[in-house]
Amino acid sequence: MKNIYWIYLALGIIFEVLGTVCMKYAEGFTKLWPSVLVFVFYGASLGLLVLVLEKYEVSIAYAIWASAGTALIAAIGIVFFHEPVSVAKVVSILLIIAGIIGLELF
Q: In the chain, how many domains are there?
């Protein structure tokens, strides 16, 4: 049953990333549907995070949620929005991922 919370966390991260992508397309909340989806996705994401916090420490759950979302958005920015990529950016993303793994292992 505890594994369901990992699924909630993964879905929460995915919805957070989708909400952030919609922010890009909302163009300062001037586009209706991307703007609406920002709130829908972030609402779903935070709702799932609330469920995860029933079983996991807030320091661990939130850190994983926020850092995984950050790493994914950075990668999406590079791949889909053609943001500049540098060695420093790639190393920083890898450090975020290492931090997530470290939180879970230790």
A: 1
Cα distance between residue 86 and residue 66, in whole Å: 22
The span from the CA of 24 to the CA of 101, in Å, is: 28
Angle CA(97)–CA(43)–CA(60) in degrees, nearest 5? 35
How many other β-carbons are positioned within 10 Å of the β-carbon of residue 45?
A: 22
**pLDDT tens-place string over residues 52-101:** 999 999 989 999 999 999 999 999 999 999 999 999 999 999 999 998 88
| Residue-number span of the structural domain to which 92 is assigned | 3-105
Tell me the per-residue pLDDT of 17-51, one tens digit each, with 9 for 90 and over: 999 999 999 999 999 999 999 999 999 999 999 99
Residue with tokens 């890898």: 94
